[in-house]
Give the backbone structure.
Amino acid sequence: MSSYNITFSPTGGTQKAADLFTKAFSNESESIDLTDRNVDFHTYAFHADDICIVAVPSYGGRVPDIAVVRLKQMKGNGARAILMVVYGNRDYDDTFVELQDTLEEAGFVCVAAVAAIAEHSIMRQFAAGRPDAQDAEELAGFAKTIRVGIEAGTLASGLTLPGNRPYKEYGGVPMKPQTGKSCTQCGICAKSCPVGAIDEANPSQTNAQACILCMRCVAVCPQNARSINKVLLAGASMKLKKACAGHKKNELFLPN
């Protein structure tokens, strides 16, 4: 039995949650980065005895489109999938059912799922510092529970997850990262962009239609030259303040 950690994590929050879970689940696992646009994901073919921990962030209650595309390129071949949806303290809406449908179409068998909280990738005041030590302990506990279930043969199929079909519409977010005067044209943002929305020849230029507001460019810029318009960011923060309030809990989903 081989374990794989398949993650779409532009700013590291989803990766952190996935790593905390995976470390408790398996001593050894291979990492697959869904943000790497240079990888041919068609080359990944799994076996029925493999276990794949598939972690994605919730973007407006949906799986990021590019993550769906790349997951569908893989061949599950009956490999068991543990779904992890990571969100910034608002809600995951239809992310679980979309991820489940995507993986089952690719040939995976979904046996368990986890909802995890991480610091919001855009408005970082929401769920700041999470996943924290308490989250780490809880995610490790989920991992051990799922591992025991798989080894006992009690987790096979029939997983029912929250969400609606058809999925909610996601029209994107009008905010897009802007480049400031401190940009040195180093090109790190262009090379790191999961969808190639930044012109490598002129990194100060971003294709607004292609940009998915994953915030990778903001996170990797060594000059802190990329940012979101402060007025738009403040407005969005006020709009989400109530929905993102409180301390949301991590959740474990097992077959009925």
